[in-house]
Amino acid sequence: MASEIMVEDWSNNQSINDGNKTVLSKPWEHIIPVGVILSAMVLATISGNMLVIMAVVRERKLHQLANKLVASLALTDLMVGVVVLPLAAVYTIMDQWLFGAVMCEIFISTDVILCTSSILHLATIAVDRYWTVSDVTYTRGGNQNHQYFLRLALPMPWVMSVIVYAPRWLFTKTEENLPDGVCHISQSRAYTIYSTLCAFYVPLLIIIAIYTKIFLIVRARANRDGFKNKNKTDSMKSQRRRLLGGNEGSVLNSSIKSTDVGKQSDQTSVDLSDSSNGNTNAADVNSPGTYGSVVRYEEKGNVQNIKTSVRSNNKDERQDSDKRTKKRIALKRERKALRTLLIITGIFVICWLPFFIFEVVMPFCGRWCQLRIPKVILQIANWLGYSNSMLNPIIYTIFSPDFRKAFKKILFNRC
Fold first, then answer.
1. Mean pLDDT, the chain, as a whole number?
2. In 10 A of CB 170, how many CB atoms?
3. Three-state SS sequence of 309-374
4. Would you say residue 22 has pLDDT above 70?
5. d(CA 131, CA 149)
6. Total-model pTM
7. Are 281 and 197 in contact, with CB atoms under 8 Å apart?
């Protein structure tokens, strides 16, 4: 896709083809460091994405749909690294196209289709993440819409990328009779608008909308659980104060010291029932009970029943604390997953937005832009977009414990 903004004969820094001899317009001091950097990017893209694919294939724990989508994305990026990047690197280093018209057509076609597929994979992963967070039935098949998505999620980005590219033959084609050393698509405004909308801007809006919705769901869930935990803790404290007359320590001490409790009341009983039932003795307790069992104590000068009640309360508090801890862990995991996907999307935007800005602008500003925008800026935008295919497997290595363990097994042959 990056080849589309390469424009012919608008820089004096072009290579010259003299018969069968190629004369370089750039010195070796420039070619060597650029060649080393681009070669390293190509190798990193290929090796990183191969590692992701191997991890998903070998590890049964990674066979969920979300990880299969990651593997499909890695396959797309691997093909970018194998087919597109080597040709693009030579084109950039030599400053001219050396492989003829047929290879130029193959290069442009694979460039557009694979880069579009990579972008659409990120949108598909976002949809999968949304349904995973918002609907607990999704991973078990969900409703009919979920089932359709589960069946189409893997092939859909590939098919859509071909559909996005196909109208190129209607709007434009590779220019005929191009000078030697040039490979680019003619700058058709109609096709530029269509392709950039379908390949980047519409998926970008979808991704932003979905992740915003996920953020709102996670935040609402965290606030709701936090509110419930606070109310439950306050209710437990209130019930204990009612049960023990306002202060645990003072009642316990006064009960130990006093021998006349039984004279004041032969028996006082308080029933606390499960809060889920909401059935509480209204004469004794005004607010709904929060404990899971009925607690009864008798004031007859014997404090043993009061001590048993306090121990029961402490046990219930510990159980409630364990539940709150589990909820906090679950919310922390959800936030971590959300943060990871937001980082992936942010890097995707940083990598591809400069290229697609130039892609839209260049056909409309014509010669004026060609004379004023340095060619090196366009080349940097091209390779910044390509670098997204290199960065994806690195992100998964850092933020996914399952992938990290699988990578260690593969690299260090650990069982």
1. 74
2. 11
3. HHHHHHHHHHHHHHHHHHHHHHHHHHHHHHHHHHHHHHHHHHHHHHHHHHHHHHHHHCHHHHHHCC
4. no
5. 10
6. 0.71
7. no
